[in-house]
Amino acid sequence: MTTYLLRRVLASLPVLFGILFATFALGRLIPGDPCRAILGEKATDVICDEFIHRHGLDKPIPTQFAIYVAEIAQGDFGQSIRFGQPVSKLLIERLPTTLELSVAALLVSIFVGIPLGILSAVKHNSWIDVLTMIWANVGVSMPVFWLGLMLAYIFSLLLKDTPFWLPPSGRLTSGIISTSFADVWGLTIPKQGPLADTVNFLSRLNILNALLTLNFTLLGDAIKHLILPALALGTIPMALIARMTRSAMLEVLGQDYIRTARAKGVRAWGVVMKHAFRNALLPLVTVIGLSLGTLLGGAVLTETIFGLSGVGRILYDAITARDYAIVQAFTLVIAFFFVILNLLVDVSYAYFDPRIRLE
Amino acid sequence: MSPEKKTTVANLDAEGITLESVSLWQTTWRRLFKRKSSMVGLAIILIMIFIALTAQWLAPYDPYQVLIGKEEVKMRQAPCIHLLGCPADQPQHIMGLDGNVRDQFSRLLYGTRLSLLVGFSTVTLAIVIGTVLGAISGYFGGWVDTIIMRLMDVLLAFPSLLLAIAIVTVLGPGLINALLAIGIVSIPAYARVVRASVLSVREMDFVSATRALGGNTYEILFGRILPNALTPLIVQGTLGIATAILDAAALSFLGLGAQPPTPEWGAMLGSERNQVFTAPHLVFYPGLAIMIVVLSFNLLGDGLRDALDPRLAHASS
Fold first, then answer.
1. From the centroid of its chain, how far is CA A149?
2. Residue of chain B whose alpha carbon sits nearest to that of A318
3. CA of B34 to nearest chain A CA: how many angstroms apart?
């Protein structure tokens, strides 16, 4: 397992390097003068000369690339013109929102998609199966932004004054404040540095922070605000997962050892869960891994609709303001995330199926 | 297969003859025809193509025409359908009016053109480049293969919509740039499909035979090897059209694709998204249209995949 892990990590290094180069190239492909593209049209010659010199834009391309990699290794993603802050600071502030949303959407898609898929495989050709498959087909065809707006319309307007009402935007109701767990616990942490950044990052994960501080009003409010965006974002992966679970289960359920298990007298659901589902897990892990890409891309659209100030939302603002530093940095960070997640998927693949390690 | 069919050699021969007369396309078509869902998909696609071709006659209004001053209408007026009880003295707008007082139904019909155009053109672009890259990669192997495939891996490492967003941000917003971006991000899928097909037949006897007969690389690659990649390419392409339409709509929604006043569904939805609570019809219909087109290509693609899969040749469904 260790050798497999090591080999797999080494194999993803060239891809990570490629991603770095691609985002680097993206920044250099901006039409026109890079200084004025990044600092704005009003930048004076003196400022531009200083800017070009500081970022080594007057040096040969390989040197520029080396400088770029070195800057990123130090956590320096440049300066955002739109927000007037270092991009790294924005990342720490905004990434938790996106993370919370993506994880919630993934949980929705897994915990709804898998049972639906199992059910429709077990009740093959029944009305449950037909309905699930229609839903799965429609689900993958819906634009995320449309679904989000429709959900907001239904749950925030039509169901107003009912217990099913859900807030259409934001992360928390105004008035409910998330106090950092560090403050609640009375920890003294330095104002700056990696420790402060980590604490800051973690405390911005509202649900985690609410659990750590045992603040249940905050927890309920944060969850309430998360339901609609997570549903909107989770629908496509949910449909994919339901479909994959169904076909994997159908394949496994037709095999001899399932008949043997049944003949032995194993209870019906025992056969389904213990014998069949375990073996259907493998293709599922792949689909879940692939869905993560959809999730990260869809987060941009979902956050825009539900007014969540996450990475996606800031990316949208950055695009309209042509804030290249942000676009470049966020694309890089999300692609890195994606590669690491895929790596984890591959590793879990090997964990579930020992044969893969030997290949 | 019934038992009496496989007993004698004569019967086998007889069966061989009947099988020979049925081409791959005929069996595929037959299998496809039996699947209700793919037929529904195909029917919707044909209807959409018809609408796209005849939009100028079907549409009751000019999609760019601002109706204020011409009729007694208000901005973002709700749908008015005479059959459903809307007073006959009011002008009929079955999907209501948009924020610029234009007939939404007409705009939606014209939008069909753009959507199909986007789907077909991006996939064609991606297939052409992907096929060339995949064929070179699979046929020549070695370091050429390594470089091309690593490049594809890097492209695949980005979530596709995100990469498309990044590319359009650099190229500048606009429909053509959005098409280019979506085309570029979908190249790897086709390159991989073609490469896999090329690898699987490269060493087969009929290829060696062509080589022995003095066929050049071009002949072998395009005449012998690539036709084998056609089936997976068709399946991938059909499903790819669905993804391309969805991604293009998303880019337009974000303001990166088609620009106003172009009647493009994603852009129509994007420009009215803040009005969802006051004028839901302006959000509902364009999104529904996107969903229906994407769904139809998904249904057809799934059907084609199953119909073209030889492993399912004797399957009942």
1. 20
2. B169
3. 16
The conformation of residue B68, written as its DSSP 8-state character, comes to B
Decide: B234 and B304 in contact? Cβ < 8 Å: yes
CB contacts of A22 in chain B (<8 Å) are 154, 158
Give the largest Cα separation in chain A, rounded.
84
Angle at A225 between CA A219 and CA A231, to 5 degrees: 115
Q: How far is CA A252 from the centre of its chain?
A: 31
CB contact under 8 A, A143 and B299: no
Distance from CA of A185 to the nearest CA of B (A): 39
* Most confident among A237-241, B121-125, B305-309 (mean pLDDT): B121-125
Look at the block and give the residue holding tokens 């799934």.
Answer: B302
A145, A147, A296 member nearest B159 (Cβ): A296
Q: What is the pLDDT of residues B72-115, one digit of tens each?
A: 778 888 888 888 888 888 888 889 888 888 889 999 999 999 99
pLDDT digits (tens, 9 = 90+) for A173-192: 887 777 888 888 887 777 77
* CATH class name, domain A87-178+215-358: mainly alpha
Instruction: Report the predicted TM-score, pTM, of the whole model to 2 decimal places.
Output: 0.86
**From A15, A137, A143, residue closest to B290, measured CB to CB:** A143
Write out pLDDT tens, residues B30-54: 888 888 888 999 999 999 999 999 9
CA torsion, points A110, A116, A118, A119, in degrees to nearest 10? 160
Q: Give me the mean pLDDT over the B202-221 stretch.
A: 83
* Contact flag B165-A300 (C-beta cutoff 8 Å): yes
Domain ranges of chain A: 87-178+215-358
HSE-up (13 A, CA, CB side) for residue B6:
3
ipTM of predicted assembly, 2 dp: 0.84
- Per-residue pLDDT of B142-162, as tens digits, reads 899 988 988 898 888 888 888
Whether residues A15 and B153 touch (CB distance < 8 A) is answered with: yes
Contact A285, A352 (CB under 8 A): yes
> What is the least distance, in Å, from the CA of A191 to any CA of chain B?
34
B291 CB within 8 Å of a chain A CB: yes
Within 253-272 of B, beta carbons closer than 8 Å to A belong to 253-256, 266, 269-270
SS3 A234: helix
What is the distance between the alpha carbons of residues A300 and B270, in angstroms, rounded to a whole number? 14
